[in-house]
Design goal:
The chain is α/β, with parallel strands linked by helices. The chain has a single domain, classed as Bira Bifunctional Protein, Domain 2 (BirA Bifunctional Protein, domain 2), CATH 3.30.930. The chain is built from 6 helices and 11 strands. It has an 8-stranded mixed β-sheet, sandwiched between helices. Strands 4-3-5 form a 3-stranded mixed β-sheet, with helices on one face. The longest helix has 18 residues, at 20-37. The radius of gyration is 17 Å and the shape is globular. It starts with 7 loop residues before the first strand and ends with a helix.
Length: 252
């Protein structure tokens, strides 16, 4: 594959809330589409009900460590990291062909998206910063992703408000992540922007500002779009074969 010409076309998809299995299936379908079509995809979405997502390598039995989410539906992500309780948040997914100059550099892609978020939050009067410290040493790694601290996480004070994870395959990279808007009753120990900044920001307003900031940093030409039928068919298959199946979600 030759190097991408910039700005790279990027389909912008603003989706509503759906089940965890569907959202993870669409993310994977867009990873494949980025490789096949050699364009980028940027999607923002929500969750139809509070849902626990496990990192790819997390044992299923570990969900018993978090009593507050035991009754929530569960899905296993294709990306690593800790478990996330998806509820009062804005979730994004970015898929980019490997020909893009930043796609081969894990750090720079995180920096671009998270740095864009820090700038956007500043515009809303919310102070946030990228974590420049090392991985925090702990005797036992916390079950929940937002109780962990890694370089390039987005922090408000000492609290993590946004983290992301990546997956590379088939000629493209996927990066998706969550921005905590407010604490969930299923993970009350994790504050969001409401608790930390006393600001209640709408997901729509945040997505509008964040998409423009991401496009500027990555040199993407945003093209508003709906999820195409090819990606929908692929996502439906992935729900049946993977994200909606007990074999996948309880595989470890």
């Amino acid at each position: 594959m030759t190097a991408s010409k910039l700005p790279l076309p990027c389909q912008l998809i603003l989706d509503g809330p759906e089940t965890g299995g569907w959202q993870m299936a669409v993310d994977e379908a867009l990873l494949e589409a980025a490789a096949d079509n050699e364009i980028a995809y940027l999607r923002f979405y929500g969750w139809s009900e509070p849902t626990l997502s496990l990192g790819y390598f997390q044992p299923y039995r570990d969900r018993e460590r978090h009593a507050a989410s035991r009754d929530c539906p569960l899905v296993r992500r294709q990306t690593g990291g800790g478990a996330i309780l998806h509820d009062r948040e804005l979730t994004y997914c970015l898929t980019v062909p490997l020909a893009h100059p930043l796609a081969a550099d894990t750090t720079r892609l995180y920096e671009a998206v998270h740095g864009a978020l820090v700038d956007v939050l500043a515009g809303f009067g919310c102070v946030a910063q990228i974590n420049r410290g090392p991985v925090a040493a702990m005797s036992e790694e916390p079950f929940l992703c937002f109780q962990r601290r890694a370089p390039l996480d987005v922090l408000s004070g000492s609290a993590k408000i946004c983290g992301s994870a990546q997956r590379r395959r088939r000629g493209a990279v996927l990066q998706h992540g969550s921005l905590l808007l407010a604490a969930s009753s299923h993970a009350p120990q994790l504050p969001g922007l409401v608790e930390l900044t006393n600001q209640e920001l709408s997901p729509r307003s945040l997505a509008q500002s964040w998409q423009a900031a991401i496009a500027g940093r990555l040199q993407l030409r945003l093209e508003p779009a709906e999820l195409g039928e090819t990606a929908r068919r692929r996502a439906r298959l992935l729900v049946r074969e993977r994200y909606g199946s007990q074999a996948w979600n309880q595989r470890r």
